[in-house]
Amino acid sequence: MLEKLSSVLKKTTDKIANAIFLDKNMVDSIVKDLQRALIEADVNVSLVLELTKKIKQAALDERIKGIEKKEHIIKLLHDELIKILGKKKEIVLGKRNVFMMVGLYGSGKTTTISKLAAYYAKRGNKVCAIGLDVHRPAAPEQLKQLCDKIGIACFIDQNEKDPKKIWKKFEKDMKEYALVLVDTSGRDALEKDLIKEIKDLAKLANPTETLLVMPADIGQAARKQAEGFKSAVNITGVIVTRMDSTAKGGGALTACAEVQAPVIFIGTGEKPADMEPFNPESFLSRLLGMGDLQALMEKVHSVMSQEEIEKTQQKLREGKFTMYEFEQQIEAMGEMGSMDKILSMIPGLGKAKIPEGALESQQGKVKNWKAAIKSMTKEEKENPEVLEKQTSRIQRIAKGAGVTTTDIRTLIKQYRMIKEMIKSQSGLVEGKLDQKTMMKLARKFGKKMKL
Q1: The model's pTM
Q2: How many Cα atoms occupy the beta-carbon half-sphere of 305 within 13 Å?
Q3: Residue 200 banded pLDDT, cuts 50, 70, 90
Q4: Which of 92, 316, 381, 403 is least crowded, fewest Cβ atoms below 10 Å from its Cβ?
Q5: What domains are defined for the chain?
Q6: In what order do the strands lie in the sheet with 237-241?
């Protein structure tokens, strides 16, 4: 996600922090790198020039001296970047909630609905979806298939071509749900008939939120789109999709902030868990390599329900951490996304220099571990300690799983380490992970985690 910009921001803050003297040449070099990276991320040129002008003025201000000056510049850079990313808007659900998705063709409305459904369902809400996109032939069926995959109720009528009639048909059925997600039709552009259709549906559905879904790769064009939808159908927020696959995401985020259309969620991948609330502070923290614990905990809640988390925590309190729990953690991590995505959220590991190919190698190991656990007997899963006493078991499991005995020994080592980690940190058991705790864990167990 904005990898190049993230790299430049990390280097810039390091350069400033480590500089003995902030002379004109160094300031010019820092400013040029920043300008190039922000413009490549598709941030509006006038915003970039305004930001770098302030940094230059602060750096060359003779009234601010030494360490104070460096701290002042880093804080200024942080504050200005937060300003152009916009304010955080949080949606608080009431007793009855209707989210209506709007947007142009290809923006990802239908997929976004399934991700939002998974997000809110995992947090204990009763969620359903309704397909009112009558113009794209495959839309209702696609929505139904996506909802079926995650066990969400979905109301569609493929034969009806009037979206208002579809809404009225299922209106009674939807009353038992706390959150109704509405899929609407798109167009190639914001045309009069699309505006009329959305306004007519809004009168019927009375949405609590009208959310514009648009892809990050349109960059600065996001401004015109957000402005158009805001004035035409009074959108209450924006969901930016495809943040993981473009260098232009900075343009979409800052453009929405400029027209005061707050970004509420961002899509960061294909999986249901790849939808996260947008918080400018924590988003910038991740870009700067300082981690994002809030997003990490959101990820955990997106792959495990509150009930599953509480069940696991109870077992850990009782000192029960078997291969069953370890397998559950591996499965959850797989659903959370790639290793580098997870590591970028952990304070202290965002800036870690990990050898090239190490993360891919680790993901390969995890795949072997899952196969090995499936080859274990019930006794071995419940008491993994028996594996260390009887090496013949390790050979049998390796053969059955099609992996090496080294893979099994590494699995046992990682299991022991995670168990020790959880045992030594009551905060981890309770799910209370603050930055200080994470840094302590990173220092204590960092050397043991072999990638």
Answers
A1: 0.67
A2: 11
A3: very high
A4: 92
A5: 3-85 (1.20.120.140), 97-282 (3.40.50.300), 295-445 (1.10.260.30)
A6: 153-155, 127-131, 179-183, 97-102, 209-215, 237-241, 263-267, 275-277
